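Q: I'm building a small set of examples for a reading group on sequence design. Run inverse folding on the following structure and report the sequence directly after it, with nothing in between.
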């Protein structure tokens, strides 16, 4: 009896195993059948299409942002290029300015050396004049050749001369006139070539004591415009009055030369006043320098140095004398 019950139990378990497997198979078939359902597939398709459209829109947005960024990059690159070009130009200008500054410094050093040479020459000339004493009228008076028959004054009427040296200018003018007791003609121009007496423009003023006094009185209040450059006055005096058979002396009274080139002025005067010195037809050019630009303890201005160099060359080349005053007293 016991053996029969044990066989019945094993058969029951086998049957249950078969039933379980069959049930699992049916469930699996149902799952597979649901996945292959057309409605499910359509839903999945719709989901995939929606996802694809979303991805495309996102891609378009990314491409638009990329184009905008590229345009910004190109603009910034152009700005950077412009800045680099500007920096290059500024660097070139800086280099040019440094070169010009170096050149100006060298030129100033040369002009200082010229001034030292001029001062040395003037000191030697003044010492020689003091030792020489007075001479005859046809020889030298105060170091100035007094053989001229016509006298022209070219006077710097700039503000510096008017404010600091005008009384001294009047005294020196009187001293120069005293060197020539009598001449055939006088004339007075300022450094710009403007006449003191417009009625005598291009004409000689007859010399007499009353006329000399009137010139000195008029000089006290005479203040036409000036550019602190005697070039125009010298050129006007030579072009208006120079003649080969006249003995003319031109007296330049000034303190400053603001022109750019000493050589250009010297060449211009030499071209006009080019009669052979052996003929006696050369117009003499004298100059008196007033130390307006010289201040104790300070270097003289460039204009004063250039004036001294110019007057020295003109007087040397044209049979005259350059005298630099030590004081305005």
């Amino acid at each position: 009896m016991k053996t029969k019950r044990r066989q019945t139990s094993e058969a029951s378990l086998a049957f249950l195993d078969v039933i379980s497997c069959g049930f699992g198979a049916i469930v699996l078939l149902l799952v597979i059948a649901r996945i292959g359902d057309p409605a499910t597939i359509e839903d999945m398709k719709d989901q995939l299409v929606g996802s694809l459209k979303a991805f495309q829109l996102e891609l378009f947005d990314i491409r638009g942002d990329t184009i905008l960024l590229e345009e910004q990059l190109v603009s910034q690159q152009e700005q950077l290029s412009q800045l680099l070009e500007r920096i290059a130009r500024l660097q070139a200008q800086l280099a040019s300015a440094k070169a010009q500054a170096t050149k100006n410094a060298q030129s100033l050093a040369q002009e200082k050396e010229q001034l030292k040479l001029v001062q040395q020459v003037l000191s030697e000339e003044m010492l020689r004049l003091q030792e020489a004493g007075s001479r005859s009228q046809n020889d030298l008076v105060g170091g100035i050749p007094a053989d001229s028959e016509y006298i022209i004054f070219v006077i710097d009427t700039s503000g510096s001369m008017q404010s600091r040296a005008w009384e001294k200018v009047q005294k020196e003018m009187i001293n120069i006139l005293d060197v020539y007791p009598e001449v055939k003609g006088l004339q007075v121009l300022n450094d710009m070539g403007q006449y003191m007496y417009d009625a005598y423009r291009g004409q000689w003023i007859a010399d007499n004591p009353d006329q000399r006094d009137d010139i000195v009185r008029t000089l006290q209040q005479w203040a036409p415009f000036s550019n602190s450059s005697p070039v125009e006055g010298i050129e006007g005096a030579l072009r208006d009055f120079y003649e080969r058979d006249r003995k003319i002396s031109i007296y330049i009274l000034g303190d400053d030369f603001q022109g750019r080139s000493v050589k250009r002025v010297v060449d211009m005067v030499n071209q006009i006043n080019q009669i052979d010195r052996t003929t006696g037809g050369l117009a003499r050019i004298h100059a008196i320098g007033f130390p307006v630009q010289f201040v104790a303890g300070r270097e003289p201005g460039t204009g004063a140095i250039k004036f001294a160099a110019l007057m020295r060359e003109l007087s040397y080349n044209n049979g005259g004398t350059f005298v630099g005053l030590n004081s305005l007293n």
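The two ends are 166 Å apart (CA to CA).
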